[in-house]
Design brief:
The protein is α/β, with parallel strands linked by helices and 434 residues long. It has two domains: 255 residues, no CATH class; 62 residues, no CATH class. It has eight helices and 19 strands. The strands form two sheets. The protein has a ten-stranded mixed β-sheet with strand order 2-1-4-7-9-11-13-15-17-19, covered by helices on one side. Helix 6 runs antiparallel to helix 7. The chain is globular.
């Protein structure tokens, strides 16, 4: 670790971070289950986290992340409370259950049996999926070290699953480390809804990690729905591995948290693998939502599509850096990136699509636009008697809907559309959807 390197603005020094990590290990040691993740895995993850330190000013992958909260936020998980107390604390946070889906509920990083359905696919004793992380996913190492439970799912055939991770403020500062591992067998057809709700409080931390392996010929449709309270602080690490002819379709809604950072890396290592990523971010007040996406095309005839839409109001900041690398072994690959943002007030949006192509016979496109609402369209609607607030909400709604049009499951599309309408504060959109 370079002691002279400067961390991102507002955060602590690397020396202070290292000491806080070591203190957190001492606090967490009695709480960690060696059967969940072996001691060797936890020790290796901690050593890598210590070696990586905090992101540096020169690290382009972390330029827009707001990590100031790390100076005071808890890192170690809190001790478990009685199951009935945890269930009572979580119950009021749960969204309505999706009909036809098997639901699993985790409260403060631990499975709540009384609120969860029977799920044969859940096997916490199965061999863990331990990814090979880089500094781009550095906070995933903290999850490897401190996770107290895991939604470890091994899916064959057709399944519809809903996993809800709820966070609650503890009596003392606490971190919550939700962990989701999904293995989709060859030719499986999986629909997965992953929700994050609640908060650990202004001095807490939600540090989520997702590892997903899509087997040959499988199809995975994944809705990730981040609706944490507005004082929550989220670090989010996602790693995807797609085998031959696998299709993975991700719709990600970033609608909550005061500060949220998503680090996603996808490896298309099987010939014919396909990735479709549709992201939506809506922020108001003084919040920061940061996204860093890395997609590696490693095999022939692989395809990736990224659509990202963001609305930043007030003094918020939204950033999305999307890098696609087409390797030498990925002839015939096809990649497209479309990143767009709308700014209202003094908000900021930074969108950066990037491409690196190391082989021939490739189709690739990318584009990014940022601006305010079309004044001609606003004038057109206002001339027909629409209130300015309604006009704005309708135009923002139409802009964001572009990222949901490929969501082909009616129940999920309806749920996502209602969530966006609420995030925009659009009564008109909610009435139309009713």
């Amino acid at each position: 670790m370079n002691a002279m390197a400067k961390p991102v603005p507002g955060s602590m020094s690397n020396a202070a971070y290292e000491q806080r990590l070591r203190d957190a290990v001492m606090d967490a040691a009695p709480l960690l289950n060696a059967r969940l993740l072996p001691v060797s895995v936890r020790s290796a993850a901690l050593n890598k986290a210590l070696a990586a330190g905090l992101p540096q000013l020169r690290d382009d992958l972390w330029r827009y992340a707001d990590l100031r909260f790390l100076a005071s936020a808890a890192l170690a998980p809190a001790a478990a409370v009685k199951p009935e107390a945890l269930a009572a604390a979580v119950t009021g946070l749960l969204p309505p259950k999706l009909a036809g889906y098997t639901r699993l509920v985790f409260g403060d990083g631990r499975l709540v049996d009384t609120l969860s359905d029977s799920c044969p696919e859940l096997d916490a004793g199965a061999p863990p999926l331990v990814p090979d992380r880089t500094r781009h996913e550095r906070f995933g190492w903290l999850n490897d070290a401190f996770a107290t439970d895991v939604a470890r799912l091994d899916v064959h055939g057709a399944q519809r699953l809903e996993v809800v991770f709820a966070a609650t403020p503890g009596a003392a500062r606490q971190a919550v480390h939700p962990r989701l591992e999904l293995s989709a067998a060859a030719n499986a057809d999986v629909v997965l809804v992953e929700r994050h709700v609640g908060t650990t409080g202004a001095q807490g931390l939600v540090n989520a990690a997702v590892q997903l392996n899509a087997g040959a010929g499988s199809r995975v449709r994944h809705l990730r729905w981040q609706a944490l309270d507005e004082d929550a602080q989220l670090l989010d690490t996602v790693q995807l591995a797609l085998d031959r002819d696998a299709r993975y379709e991700l719709t990600q809604l970033q609608l909550g948290a005061r500060s949220a950072r998503t680090s996603l890396r996808a490896s298309l290592y099987g010939p014919g693998a396909q990735l479709a990523l549709h992201g939506v971010a809506v922020a108001t007040g003084r919040r920061t939502l940061d996204h860093s996406l890395l997609v590696d095309h490693l095999a022939p005839q692989t395809r990736s599509k990224q659509v990202f839409r963001a609305v930043a109001r007030d003094a918020t900041r939204i950033a999305c850096r999307s890098r696609v690398e087409v390797g030498r072994t990925a002839r015939g690959a096809d990649s497209s990136q479309s990143l767009k943002g709308l700014i209202a007030g003094s908000g900021e949006i930074d969108l950066r699509p990037q491409l690196e192509i190391l082989t021939d016979a490739v189709r690739a496109s990318h584009g990014a636009t940022t601006g305010s609402l079309d004044e001609n369209m606003r004038f057109y609607l206002a001339a027909r008697g629409l209130d300015p607030a309604i006009t704005r909400a309708l135009l923002e709604w139409a802009f964001l809907e572009d990222a949901l049009r490929d969501l082909d499951l009616p129940e999920l599309r309806s749920a996502a559309e209602h969530a966006l309408a609420r995030a925009l504060g659009s009564d008109i959109a909610q009435q139309v959807l009713a």
